[in-house]
Design brief:
It contains 16 helices and 29 strands. It is α+β, with helices and mostly antiparallel strands.
């Protein structure tokens, strides 16, 4: 009996040794490669609803067929309720995989954690560098991007910890640096919206040579991974800056067949960010000092608000969706600083040094796309009141102080007392100086006595030198026309305008889910051409979604706004899409009925005030 127990014990020991040996051997089988690409892939709704993560994984696998052994990709899969990939990946755990010329292989499965937990990022990078040795590394964050305040990611499975803030990412990399002295990455990239910000670049400057990211919303299909794999496989020693410039150009080229789409991608030399930050601090300090010495506090606030309103914004904000309040940093300083100021000249030089590549769609205004954004609250007052984590980001003390002072007035101040309730089209002096923008607002009385609003449009509104709100260039009445899609008059909220056109957000139910269509007007050879360029879904958390293309057989229910409670709850019409490219956008006469015509005045604090509404009947 003792002999049997002894042999059983020996067999267990041998089995354990064999298992340990196999496991250790498997981990050390990976040869040292010239380049390993790490992808922190948060599938989220982009995968569970649209299969976009699986699409990119398959693109990566296909691209490896003609590669050598010198290059590999390691992927973390998490953050989604359901993976649609051909290999079984569970949404109940975190999965690490590798892709080489041999194909796709899962290499590790761990207990589920939020993508928004900094330790998840630390574990992934540590494992990858330990088990996949390489001369060079690049890291790509794949998912939603939410700009400088909310950071990266939307984990569907952990609603209490859905994203990584810049502060959290900075802490994760600091932990990695303390444990790995050779952390330095060739580049950090964001295949995500709105992450090409000076705050993001500041956080990652100690840990990588370059950053590549987008100032604007990204199309749903994201980057061209075939180019990335082929470029690194064909030229293992390809300079990082050349690789990233190629990624940026291939990204823009991939969407060039969609002339109405607006895309950006820029490459930032992170060793130049400290000098740029110093210049930003000097310039914003002088602007702030000039404002404070020239104007009383409230007037200084109005000037800041005016600078902000005229700056190039990203994320398609409007009064139907506040977005993330990211603006082009150069666009702001061009407005706020005197172009002859030597400090502004220094800023321009330092910005040019930092942004080594800046590509964007031809339909964008080149003077408003510099390659780097900065957070400046304007539309989203809720986010502006919750900046504790943002202010922990090691960015720029002078600029953060400027924003803190602005936010204190934005949240705490108001101009309500100067606006006369139900005034007519004639504005008094106090109303004029406190009005930032004026919109036309049309309401229709329904059969059950509900007032449905058709949105806000400032395209043909202005104020003349006597203080009258003008329409169509004069003191004229509404011409009974409004924006329509396939002859259905829709609720449309005017977004941003620049030299290249105007955008509108149209609230809808798309296949039963809350979304917005994006309409863009472009001035082509003196003519305004309109196009539905895609849609974005609207989540309860206010996530800025990627712009996706409409498909044949999509069902659209156009929603109007209830004028009493502000909800998008009134059906204006329904449409089954036959050809997404053939949607007809135009100004059409509204249906017969009883209407009210008025104007919405938006003050410098973002509050809305309405003139008296006049009855209007269409027979």
């Amino acid at each position: 009996m003792g002999f049997i127990k002894t042999n059983v014990r020996i067999m267990f020991i041998l089995a354990a040794l064999v298992f340990y040996g196999v496991t250790s051997h498997a981990q050390n089988l990976e040869p040292k490669r010239s380049f390993v690409l790490l992808i922190y892939m948060n599938g989220s709704d982009l995968e569970s609803k649209h299969e976009l993560a699986s699409e990119d994984i398959n693109e990566i696998i296909r691209s490896y067929k003609n590669t050598g052994d010198n290059f590999a990709t390691v992927i973390l899969h998490g953050g989604t309720k359901k993976w649609h990939f051909s290999e079984q990946i569970s949404g109940d755990s975190l999965t690490y995989s590798k892709v080489t010329k041999e194909g796709f292989e899962k290499v590790k499965v761990t207990a589920n954690k939020s993508i928004g937990d900094p330790s998840t990022l630390v574990d992934f990078i540590s494992f990858s560098k330990e088990n996949f040795p390489a001369e060079r590394y690049g890291l790509i964050f794949w998912n939603h991007g939410r700009g400088s305040v909310h950071g990266f990611g939307y984990d569907e499975l952990f609603p209490e910890d859905i994203s990584l803030s810049l502060h959290e990412m900075g802490e994760a990399f600091a932990d990695l640096k303390r444990s790995q002295n050779d952390l330095d990455l060739d580049f950090i990239g964001f295949d995500a919206c709105l992450m090409a910000t000076i705050e993001t670049a500041t956080v990652f400057a100690p840990y990588a040579d370059y950053m590549i990211a987008s100032q604007e919303l990204e199309p749903g299909n994201g980057w061209n991974y075939e180019y990335i794999i082929n470029a690194l496989s064909a030229q293992p020693n390809l300079k990082t800056v050349d690789l990233l410039e190629g990624i940026a150009k291939s990204y823009i080229d991939a969407y060039s067949y969609q002339p109405y789409l607006q895309a950006t991608l820029s490459v930032i030399a992170l060793d130049k960010v400290a000098a740029l930050n110093a210049s930003v601090g000097n310039l914003i300090s002088k602007i702030s000092a000039n404002l404070n010495s020239t104007y009383p506090a409230k007037e200084a606030f109005k000037q800041k608000s005016n600078y902000r309103a005229r700056s190039k914004s990203f994320g398609l904000p409007s009064f139907s969706f506040a977005a993330e309040d990211m603006i082009d940093i150069s666009s702001f300083f061009k407005i706020a600083a005197k172009s002859t100021d030597t400090l502004f000249g220094d800023f321009e030089k330092k910005l040019k040094d930092a942004v080594v590549c800046n590509v964007y769609s031809k339909n964008l205004d080149k003077d408003a796309i510099s390659g780097l954004s900065v957070y400046f609250p304007y539309y989203n007052r809720k986010t502006a009141s919750q900046l504790k984590d943002y202010l922990l980001t090691p960015f720029n003390i002078e600029f953060e102080k400027f924003i803190e002072n602005y936010v204190a007035e934005l949240i705490g101040g108001d101009a309500d007392s100067v606006f006369v309730k139900d005034s007519g089209r004639k504005l008094n002096a106090a109303m004029l100086v406190n009005t930032n923008k004026i919109y036309l607002n049309i309401r229709r009385l329904t059969g059950d006595s509900t007032l449905v609003s058709y949105g806000l449009d400032a395209y043909d509104t202005n104020v003349d030198d006597r203080g009258y709100i003008t329409l169509y260039g004069g003191n004229k009445k509404w011409d009974a026309r409004w924006i329509s899609i396939n002859d259905i008059n829709v609720c449309a909220f005017m977004g941003l305008s620049n030299q290249s056109g105007i955008s509108y957000n149209v609230p809808v139910l798309l296949n039963g889910k809350q979304a917005e269509l994006v309409i863009k007007y472009f001035n082509v050879e003196g003519k305004n051409l309109a196009k539905v360029t895609g849609y974005r879904e609207i989540s309860a958390e206010g996530i800025t979604d990627k712009i996706k293309s409409l498909q044949a057989y999509d069902e659209i229910t156009f929603l109007g706004q209830n004028s009493i409670d502000g909800s998008m709850s009134i059906t204006l019409g329904k449409l089954l899409i036959a050809d997404p490219l053939a949607l007809d956008v135009k100004l059409s006469t509204m249906p017969k009925g009883n209407y009210q015509v008025g104007f919405c005045m938006v003050d410098f604090y973002g509050n809305k005030h309405y003139t008296k509404f006049e009855d209007y009947i269409i027979n």
